[in-house]
Here is the input.
Amino acid sequence: MSHELNDNSSTTDDHGAQPPMKAFRYPDGSITYPEHPTGPNGGASVEVIDLSEYTATVLTWTVSTATPSGVRRPNPVAIVEFDIDGESVRAIGQLATAGDFDDGSGTDEEMSVDVAIGDEVRPVYVDSLRDSASGIRAAESQEWDGYRFDPI
Here is the structure.
């Protein structure tokens, strides 16, 4: 079950400075993340919902140990589900850990996560989900920020 977070639960000093975690509602009431050109029943989106204002439930999680260049290793990830006004919307993303370092390094113990199926998590904005200097594409050709899910 998702809960709307109150204003003082933000993880940054200026909540307005971080981009929203945009989900989109369609005329039939369905919600998708990310946006799709047409909703499940063919309509264009009619409302933007900021998922960072809600909590979600962990449906499943795993730890990836063979990550692409520039992605932290090991990399705990989860599929989570938000309940927004009775509509379900799912997202996949990294789990926040005690060992989250700016350079993505950390020992296995530091990068471990204490989470279980059914746990409640909140989206936490981070400036960089991976090292922008790694990889074959020019760093300025992509966005590197996003959200991790922090167990509550």
Summary: The longest strand covers residues 75-84. The chain has a mean pLDDT of 82. The two ends are 13 Å apart (CA to CA).
